[in-house]
Design a protein that fits this description.
Blueprint (H helix, E strand, L loop, with lengths): L1 H17 L9 E5 L15 E2 L7 E2 L7 E4 L8 E3 L9 E10 L7 E7 L7 E5 L3 E3 L4 E2 L11 E11 L2 E8 L2 E8 L10 E4 L12 E9 L5 H9 L9 H16 L1
Antiparallel strand pairs: 1-15, 2-5, 3-4, 4-15, 5-14, 6-11, 6-15, 7-8, 7-14, 8-9, 9-10, 11-12, 12-13
Helix pairs in contact: 1-3
Length: 254
């Protein structure tokens, strides 16, 4: 019995200390599966089509259904996290995409503006997938047609207007550092998926699926989990971790 209690104690310590970095973070804050809806599965935010067009879904998603962008009837991107109430010091955006045609000049996969004065960071095709303002990107394969690819953007504010992070494309990754002067994170202006806000001609012609957004700078291992397990959440909401902790505590008391 003593040995068993020690095992429980070790498991509890691993769970607690292994998640210390997540204290103060919600984990996943938005999850858009596009299974016949634009709704955020987590339920924190509203999402709306950016501009006119019919919302079209396709059964050939990376994880069940997916959302069609632009094309003949598709919408020019969707605006996520549109309540303008939260500023993030850390954020991770994960998205799957498939192109139907060559992206237009500066066709944008997503557009994130965490600071004032429209200092946005766009992850777009110039003509290859490229993080504008980070000046890093990937090769021509990133715009191959009719193939699902995983892309992710990690941003971490480190003070004095400096941000650092990593962009990912499939199994490749590139780190970046960007300085914008003495600016602080402020309530988010926008996060737009599939286009740049207010510029519909920069919408990609294709599909997006399984958009996940975390208020935490995910590391390489967790990004790999997102890539290898489409549709699965890698950091649960706080309630899930609390249930796990309570479960271990109850076992330990027995």
């Amino acid at each position: 019995m003593v040995a068993l209690k020690r095992i429980y104690s070790v498991c509890l310590a691993v769970l607690v200390f292994g998640n210390m970095a997540l204290i103060g973070h919600a984990g996943i804050i938005a999850h858009l599966r596009f299974d016949d809806t634009l709704d955020d599965e987590v339920g924190n935010y509203s999402n709306a089509p950016m501009g006119a067009g019919t919302v079209e879904y396709d059964n050939d998603g990376i994880a069940d259904e997916c959302l069609e962008l632009f094309g003949t009837n598709g919408i020019p991107g969707i605006e996520c996290l549109s309540d303008n109430t939260i500023g993030f010091e850390q954020i991770t955006v994960s998205v799957w995409y498939k192109l139907k045609s060559e992206p237009p000049g500066y066709g944008t996969l997503f557009d994130y503006t965490p600071w004032s004065e429209q200092k946005n960071m766009t992850f777009d095709f110039r003509p290859n997938l490229w993080l504008y303002s980070g000046n890093v990107g990937f090769g021509a394969e990133s715009r191959t047609l009719d193939t699902w690819y995983h892309a992710a953007f990690v941003c971490h504010y480190i003070g004095a207007g400096n941000v650092t992070g990593t962009v990912y494309w499939n199994e490749s990754s590139v780190s970046y550092v960007r300085t914008w002067g003495d600016r602080q994170p402020h309530p988010m202006d926008h996060l737009t998926i599939g286009s740049e806000k207010g510029i519909p001609e920069r919408t990609i012609d294709g599909y997006i699926d399984d958009v996940q957004i975390y208020d935490f700078a995910l590391g390489d291992e967790l990004i790999a989990e997102l890539r290898d397990n489409p549709g699965e959440v890698v950091i649960p909401e706080p309630a899930c971790m609390v249930v796990a902790l309570l479960g271990l505590l109850m076992l330990r008391r027995r």
